[in-house]
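Q: I have 159 residues here and want to know how they pack in 3D. Can you give me a structure?
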Amino acid sequence: MRKGIIFALLFTAPVMVQAGVYTCEVNGRKVYQSTPCSPGDVPTRIDAPAPSDTPPVVNTRSVEELRKDLEERRAKGREIVEQRAAEARERRLNKEAIRNKQVRLSMTKSDVLASWGRPSDINRSIGSSGVSEQWVYDRGRNGTQYVYFDNGIVTSISD
């Protein structure tokens, strides 16, 4: 009997604990509180939103799969950082070569123009692999120098 009374009290306790929610306006703002704003106010009913028809997203991947995915992402990130560092080194070396009036492999056409200026002649051929160019620099008594480009990048330099 005693257990039955305790069970009944515990079962009905949440109902007794529920408090009304009152909507009041304080300084132009809507405020929700558990006590009436003024005598005679009626509590506002607030309903919980209806459950969604779509099931919740559950991650069914194993810890090992998640670790593997994380490691792949980290490796890709390291690869991108290394690539950007290599590009930065190339730009620095190209700028240094331009200051020293030199041409080096992997320079662009604009780098070569900045270093050696306009060529005496340009020979161009267009093929299935892209555009190939030969820039000819007449150096007077020092002879002729050639710079070869494939798709705008220096691939060879010869005297």
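Q: Anything worth noting?
A: The radius of gyration is 39 Å. The chain is about 40% helix and 25% strand.
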